[in-house]
Amino acid sequence: MNFQAVRSIYSFEMARFFRTLSQSLISPVLSTSLYFIVFGAAIGSRIDEIDGVSYGAFIVPGLIMLSVLTQSISNASFGIYFPKFLGSIYELHTAPVSFIEIVLGYVGAAATKSALIGLVILGTAEFFVDFEILHWGAMLAFLALTCISFSLFGFIIGVWSKNFEQLQMVPLLVITPLVFLGGSFYSISMLPPFWQTVTLFNPVVYLISGFRWAFYGTADINIGISLMMIAVFMLICLAIIGWTFKTGYKIKT
Amino acid sequence: MAAILSVQNLSKQYDGGFQALKNVNLDIDEGEILALLGPNGAGKTTLISIICGLVNPSSGTAKVGGFDVVGDYRQARSLIGLVPQEIALEPFQTVMDALRFTRGLFGKRNDPALLKSILEKLSLWDKKDAKTMELSGGMKRRVLIAKALCHEPRVLFLDEPTAGVDVELRKEMWDVVRQLKQDGVTIILTTHYIEEAEAIADRVGVIRSGELLLVEEKETLMQRMGQRQLRVELMQPLDGIPEALGHYDLDYDAETQALVYSYEANGERTGIASLFADLSKAGIILRDIETKQSSLEDIFVGLVEDKA
Q1: What is the dihedral of CA B279, B283, B286, B287, to 10 degrees?
Q2: How large is the C-alpha radius of gyration of chain B?
Q3: B33 CB contacts (<8 Å, ≥6 apart)?
Q4: What is the mean pLDDT of chain B?
Q5: How far apart are CA B302 and CA A189, in angstroms?
Q6: Which residues of A touch B53 (CB under 8 A)?
Q7: B66 Cβ neighbours under 8 A, 6+ residues apart
Q8: What is the distance between the terminal CA atoms of chain A, rounded to a whole angstrom?
Q9: CA-nearest residue of chain A to B52?
């Protein structure tokens, strides 16, 4: 195992994060703050409590998930796509590194970044709404699992993308709708029965529900099922990445 | 000297069906400079890409220092440095960070003294804190060389190091290569410039359409490439080459009524003056003369015919 290489990739990626701090940290924090002001304070003050939680507090876990998902995907996909675009990816192929080390470096860095963003948003939320976290351990575990699995997913997108347009497309066209329809802003029990069933096919529902359970102890879906779903998603991503590298698909000729 | 690089029966067929390499065999000794010469699309880059790990071979093997480039890729790649054809650098990275990154990828700890000496050798030390996007084209190429050297490889591949580079910079690049050879690095470079091979290589391999036609000492090959031809068109047709001219290397082309004289351009005496004197003594009247250097393409064609 070439740990030096993992460290090299990881610190290179983190260096980019800190170099572009305004873009990588301030913009997600700012946009989430706007959500808190609009939905939490302005509109939320006119909405009843959901499951005994004030609306402003109710949306906190969902908003964190929204940022963490999109950031994980964009960080990881960009991290591996950019060297491909520049051509500097040749270094990874000619260095004595295995795909496991490459994935550890890039996905590890992307997951760290989005976890940091998630925690900073959590801190920001304190300024706007009152809430308490019932299960700290579970909250952190959920956050970590989500960051890792969606960074893996982003890595796949980055490897498979042929241009910047494709790179943007999945987060924009797939993830944003899934998150909005995944119960960030409402409890799925508020939906008509038919749509409740449809929602169960949305993997993000399980993430947000599980994450909200860690905060307030109430959830739309059993916490065990939530954990299992995210584990399955992570395994699928790992399998796709393994296959991609094994066959050299989109990477090597 | 032992072969540091050994390529056996290497072939590559791309997915589209294009056969980029056909059964290539090649041994390279430690410490030599080998130039792979060939027109664009001949398979030069494919060959070194396979050895360096960028492309998977379809069949055959390549070993570096005894390590298979596929099976023992970690050991093999540790011995190899590659300078790619296209400039590919992270624009916002500083020169020093770029070197540290590469050294890390090769599993080696930072070694400030070594990186300093590499940068100094390539006249980049005063640019160590500059972002790579701020550098000139020539400097960027030298950064790529520095990156390829920073894990102390024993074999260095230079893919078209002087393609699209001005004359001054080309000379500079050649000096760098000679310096590296002195430091004991084995160098394989690809080029489509004969002059480049002539200037720096010890041996020259000629590739065409995926086939390695020959690998020869530079001197031998250059002699062959130094052939010139003089065409003398005549007023009157000849029945054959007159006896008085028998000691010249002459061919007669009846169709165009021309005598073709081959000679060494690098030779001390070309023999042209005495040929003309003998022609006029023999009463042969000239209409026109023309000389030409055998082109790279001619030589390739010649090589193919030789092999057939």
Answers
A1: -170
A2: 24
A3: B177, B181, B186, B187, B188, B189, B200, B201, B202, B203
A4: 87
A5: 82
A6: 93-94
A7: none
A8: 25
A9: A94
CB B43 within 8 Å of CB B50: no
> CA B148 to CA B157: how far, in whole Å?
9
State the average pLDDT over residues B277-299. Answer: 79
Averaged over A26-33, what is the pLDDT? 84
Q: Indicate the pTM of the whole model.
A: 0.83
Higher pLDDT, B297 or A63: A63
| Domains parsed from chain B with CATH numbers | 3-223 (3.40.50.300), 227-307 (3.30.70)
> By C-alpha distance, which of B307, B53, B81 is closest to A253?
B53
Task: Write out the two tokens for A227.
Answer: 């954990």
Q: Across residues A205-221, what is the average pLDDT?
A: 88
Give the CA dihedral B271, B277, B282, B283, nearest 10 degrees: 130
The reply to whether residue B78 touches residue A83, judged by beta carbons under 8 angstroms, is: no
Within 10 A of B77 (CB to CB), how many other CB atoms are there? 25
Q: Which residues of B touch A16 (CB under 8 A)?
A: 92
At residue B213 the predicted structure's pLDDT band, cuts being 50, 70 and 90, is confident
The verdict on A86 touching B (C-beta cutoff 8 Å) is: yes
Contact state of B77 with A94 under an 8 Å Cβ cutoff:
yes
Residue B290: pLDDT over 60: yes
Question: Which distant-in-sequence residues (6+ apart) come within 8 Å of B105 by Cβ?
Answer: A2, A4, A5, A8, A9, A91, A92, A95, A96, A97, B151
Question: What pLDDT, on a 0 to 100 scale, did the predictor assign at position B300?
Answer: 57
HSE (CB half, 13 Å, CA atoms) of B236? 9
- Diameter of chain A by CA atoms? 60
- Per-residue pLDDT of A35-59, as tens digits, reads 888 887 778 778 878 878 888 888 8
Does the beta-carbon distance from A96 to B107 stay under 8 Å? yes
Contact B89, B132 (CB under 8 A): yes
- For A98-125, the pLDDT digits (tens) are 889 999 999 999 999 999 999 999 998 8
